[in-house]
Write a structure and sequence with these properties.
459 residues, alpha/beta, Udp-n-acetylmuramoylalanyl-d-glutamate--2,6- Diaminopimelate Ligase, Chain: A, domain 1, UDP-N-acetylmuramoyl-L-alanine:D-glutamate ligase, Protein-Tyrosine Phosphatase, Chain A, 3 domains, 6-stranded mixed beta sheet, 16 helices, 21 strands, globular
Length: 459
């Protein structure tokens, strides 16, 4: 992790006060939360709408922090404890991360996309870890604060950092790319998330492509080549090295001979014909994510055998196509971390294709941040569900009522169930499910469908 004396840290920042008497103290790591302060940390206070972190600076020092930043616009910085007065603590944090990134002998892979970026991050990290010391974004640390903290937490012997980049508006991914200066960058796909903020899929494409702003001049850019919006906008960029992945044979890499079962997928690739990879993750869309990871692994000199090992040992971040078992023996697919029309369609298609179950059920919740056409997006999801493949549709939430409405165009009323109360939905599922059933849970993060999954598991 970041480890410097206060003097060295001051040399990296524009510090406005004299810290000579504290200059020898060593900073180890960075924290923005006094509840998680570790000995030697640099505490970074932020001014929020309701709380000003500067009021906790002394408490942070008392808990073991070696020093703290201090916004020059906040009056009366204490002189008896080591505070570094800077123009803006957030900008200072981001600057430290950028400088620390360049002080390490480190390669960076940046990943963004409307869907699949966390899964792809896990895959890339797992493949590269067969050859290198790899560290990756943890949890949701993928924004203008989380990414700098991730970089500053990197061990000094780290060889590769795999960094997820999220956004809600224009300019955010450009900032993250400039901070991290990736050697390789991936866009997994373009969906409908953030239409509310960005206005159109063209706008989402433009925002995601900001990832190339900090890409090294000779860095590799890999993107989902079956998305025409990406293809069109990439042509307008002056990029030296571009590769694509996807189902179409026009891509740099595409899958061959796919065989899927309830445990995962077997496939070959156009670049490694005759070599069978096993991916212990459900879904055709995850094969596309694996293709992106394979492109990056090849870029970093990982052998085919190492890639096979990396995919076979893959464990994804929780609530992403996670198969668990309920109290009665029913199989549960927990894909409830997030949802957009693209990812929900992919999950429903997956369940439709799986065989060997007595009954297959969908539990679908609201998809958020879809803008003015949100009701139509939900209706479209309901209309695409095949009653020959899915026996029951359960929805939760106000917007998800439109999924139920769309499903009723193809389903009998007794097979479509709409709920606004989570306890009532849990009770209904507990009564109706049995051994041999398969249940998919899918919704935006704010719907917290994992609470229902926990109820089923407990019985």
């Amino acid at each position: 992790m970041f480890e410097k004396t206060i003097n060295q840290t001051c040399d990296m920042l524009n510090v406005h006060n004299d810290l000579t008497k504290f200059g020898h103290l060593i900073i180890k790591g960075v924290s923005i939360d006094t509840r998680k302060i570790e000995k030697g940390n640099l505490f970074v206070p932020f001014k929020g709408e309701n709380v000003d972190g500067h009021q906790f600076v002394r408490q942070a020092i008392e808990k073991g922090a070696a020093a703290a930043l201090w916004d020059k616009h906040v009056p009366n910085p204490p002189e008896d404890i080591p505070v570094l007065v800077v123009d803006d603590p957030l900008l200072a944090l981001q600057s430290l991360a950028n400088q620390y990134r360049h002080q390490l002998d480190l390669k960076v892979v940046g990943i963004t996309g409307s869907n699949g970026k966390t899964t792809t991050k896990d895959m890339v990290a797992n493949l590269l870890a067969t050859k290198y010391k790899v560290h990756k974004t943890q949890g949701n640390y993928n924004n203008h604060i989380g990414l700098p903290l991730t970089i500053l937490a990197l061990p000094q012997d780290a060889e590769v950092a795999v960094l997820e980049m999220g956004m809600s508006g224009f300019g955010e991914i450009e900032l993250l790319s400039e901070i991290s200066q990736p050697d390789a960058a991936i866009i997994t796909n373009i969906g409908e998330s953030h239409l509310q903020d960005l206005g159109s899929r063209e706008g989402i494409t433009k925002a995601k492509l900001e990832i190339v702003q900090g890409l090294k001049e000779d860095g590799l850019f890999a993107y989902y080549g079956d998305e025409h919006l990406l293809e069109e906008q990439v042509k307008e960029l002056s990029l030296k090295r571009v590769k694509t992945f996807g189902r179409s044979e026009t891509n740099t890499i595409y899958p061959l001979g796919i065989e899927m079962n309830n445990a995962g997928s077997y496939f070959e690739t156009s670049l490694d014909k005759g070599v069978t990879f096993f991916l212990p993750v459900l879904g055709q869309h995850n094969i596309h994510n694996a293709l992106a990871a394979i492109l990056i692994a090849k870029e970093f000199g990982v052998s085919v055998e190492e890639m096979k090992e990396g995919l076979e040992s893959l464990k994804l971040t929780q609530m992403r196509m996670e198969m668990t078992e309920g109290q009665k023996g029913e199989k549960i697919i927990n894909d409830a971390y997030n949802a957009s029309p693209t990812s929900m369609k992919a999950a429903i298609q997956l369940v439709s294709e799986l065989e060997g179950f007595t009954a297959k059920m969908l539990v679908l919740g609201d998809m958020l941040e879809l803008g003015d056409n949100e009701e139509e997006f939900h209706l479209e999801i309901g209309r695409m569900i095949d009653p020959d493949q899915i026996q029951h549709v359960y929805t939760f939430g106000k917007l998800a009522e439109f999924i139920a409405k769309g499903a009723l165009e193809r389903f009998s009323p007794e097979n479509v169930h709409s709920f606004q109360d989570k306890k009532e939905l849990s009770a209904e599922l507990e009564n109706q499910t049995k051994d041999g059933d398969l249940i998919l849970f899918k919704a935006s993060r704010g719907m917290a469908l994992e609470e229902i999954i926990e109820a089923l598991a407990k019985g």
